[in-house]
Amino acid sequence: MYIKENIDRILSFNCNKIVLIILILLGIFSTIIEYIISLKIKELYLGSVILATALFVVAVKYPAGVKSNFLFIIGNKYSMGIYILHPLAIHLINDIFCIQEGGWLYPICVLLIALLFANIFRFAVKYSNNKCVNLS
User: Fold this and answer.
1) Worst-scoring range by mean pLDDT, 88-92, 105-109, 126-130?
2) Measured between alpha carbons, how far is 47 from 68 in angstroms, rounded to an integer?
3) Residue 39 phi/psi, 5° resolution?
4) Percent of the chain as helix, strand, coil, to the nearest 5
5) Were both Cys, which of 34, 36, 50, 65 would link to 27 (CB 3.0–4.6 Å)?
6) What is the pTM of this model?
């Protein structure tokens, strides 16, 4: 709600690409340092907030560079499926493949398996819509 009401302020935010790149790098390094210092995985790091904010400003201020991006295409097509099916991917990874949470490979595995399920789900919905018969 806040973003929608203040989109003009966000777009008029006087910030060049160099500052945004610095904020993105600061967010990444800050998150890594926070993880190393705390020695445990937390739900939210301050660096993640900085990173997410900087990435959002980049996406809003420079939409042409984002819309042709591979990640934009995946997010546009599969974000709902990934969101809905990622708990199933986590369950499979933890219980069936016996990979425990932690480390850099875990979120990548979750994303890839959830993306696979989202792709199958999208295909099944598309296929079922083509095979439906109108009974009226």
Assistant:
1) 126-130
2) 27
3) 55, 30
4) 80, 0, 20
5) 50
6) 0.53
